[in-house]
Design brief:
Blueprint: H1 3-38, H2 42-52, H3 55-77, H4 84-87, H5 90-130, H6 136-169
Helix pairs in contact: 1-2, 1-3, 1-6, 2-5, 3-5, 5-6
């Protein structure tokens, strides 16, 4: 790979990785607790984020591009995944661990967060369109979806923070 290609991959990996990790951490630490605290009214915010601002798609795109660029960089450093010396080294293992943690975070985000946010947005949109407060069943469903989203958001944030830490330390182990 040329230096220009490596620089581009590194730029994409770091900039989109920062967006992904920062966004996931913000959602888990600040946004989800705030939405849960305001109850059903938080559903309107989630509807805006999921359906209008398309937050799940932004995070999905950032995660895919971060992972692909990271795999490209790992492939280069490991001589096409064939250098057992590099793969077994401290940096090789730490970058590998970071990659596995980031892949796990992406799977949770795509399998749990994205569909749950869509369900929550659709439910609250229906309540808003009806121009009434949610029924007890709807309120219970909103709370259940918010709890699932909050738990999964925490898991994604922790996995991504651990992945970031592994990659930040990789060159020094």
């Amino acid at each position: 790979m040329s230096n220009g290609t490596l620089l581009f991959l590194r730029l994409v990996h770091i900039v989109l990785g920062v967006f992904w990790v920062g966004g996931a951490t913000f959602v888990a630490l600040l946004l989800m607790p705030s939405l849960r605290a305001v109850g059903p009214a938080g559903g309107a915010v989630m509807q805006q984020l999921a359906q209008v601002r398309r937050m799940p798609q932004w995070f999905m795109a950032a995660s895919i591009l971060t992972l692909l660029s990271g795999i490209g960089l790992y492939w280069h450093d490991s001589a096409g995944f064939s250098s057992s010396t590099w793969l077994g080294s401290g940096p090789g293992q730490m970058f590998g661990l970071g990659g596995v943690l980031a892949i796990a975070a992406s799977v949770v985000g795509m399998a749990v967060n994205s569909p749950t946010a869509r369900q929550l947005g659709a439910l609250t949109a229906g309540v808003q369109a009806a121009g009434r407060p949610p029924s007890p069943d709807e309120a219970a469903a909103i709370q259940r979806l918010q709890a699932r989203l909050a738990s999964a958001a925490w898991l994604v944030a922790v996995l991504l923070l651990l992945a970031t830490a592994a990659m930040a330390l990789a060159r020094y182990v």
